[in-house]
Amino acid sequence: MPKAELPHPTRRELLRAGGIGLLTFSLGGSLVKMSPAEAQAAGVSLSVLSRAEAETLASLCERLVPGSREAGVVAFVDHQLAVSRTDCMLMIRYLGVDPPFTPFYREGLAALNAAAQSRHQLSFSKLEDASAEALIDALADGKIEGWTGPPPSFFYFVTRNDACDVVYGTVKGFKALGVPYAPHIMPPSEWGEPD
């Protein structure tokens, strides 16, 4: 029996299938294209981060950029840590840090939790607003006593960029900022919205 030839997709079909702005997640045994927010809402399993690391990252990013938790910052970062370096869209890729990038996040999140435990006997995600904000200020200033992770101000910079990318790295995000979106090539859809 002869093999059936598959049709060759056009560039437009490939772009539409790829859904610029969508990521491929495993859900219920199938690969599904979704935005980070949709993946998070659907309960997509984490590939790299532990639940505790994810909660710390979500709490930190939400304080840095409100709306990032709901926008799926954890799903975004976790997904990007699982892909190859050439496919990774995290800011850290462009900042002279050698891959793999997972240790950077793990060590930074662990150090943040250790600092919260040392100061307040609570994990970072359980801190009250004033305590969390004071710790974030110390993180940004690079002045956290006993810090064992990557340079604290660099960790702050990278995680803040991740949160900004998820919240404002879309046409809708630019609109929320009141900034005209002027891409070289207009994406066919928003994060996860059909074209």
Provide mean pLDDT, rounded.
84
Quaternary structure state of the chains depicted: single chain
**Which strands sit side by side, in order, in the main sheet?**
1-2
Give the termini distance in whole angstroms: 39 Å
Biggest β-sheet: count, sense, barrel?
2 strands, antiparallel
Q: Please tally the helical runs, counting DSSP H or I stretches of 4 or more residues.
A: 9
Structural class: mainly alpha
Q: From the alpha carbons, calculate the radius of gyration and give it in angstroms.
A: 19 Å
User: What is the share of helical residues?
Assistant: 40-55%
Strand content: 5-15%
* Unreliable stretches: 3-20
Total domain units: 1
Order of helices and strands: HEEHHHHHHHH
- Overall geometry comes to globular
Task: Please count the beta strands (DSSP E, at least 2 residues each).
Answer: 2
Structure overview:
With 195 residues, the protein is mainly α. It has one domain. It contains nine helices and two strands; from the N terminus they run αββαααααααα. A two-stranded antiparallel sheet has the order 1-2. Strand 1 and strand 2 (30-34) form a beta hairpin. Mean pLDDT is 84; it is low at 3-20.
In short:
This protein is mostly helical and 195 residues long. The protein is built from nine helices and two strands.
Features:
195 residues, mainly alpha, two-stranded antiparallel sheet, 9 helices, 51% helix, 5% strand, disordered N terminus
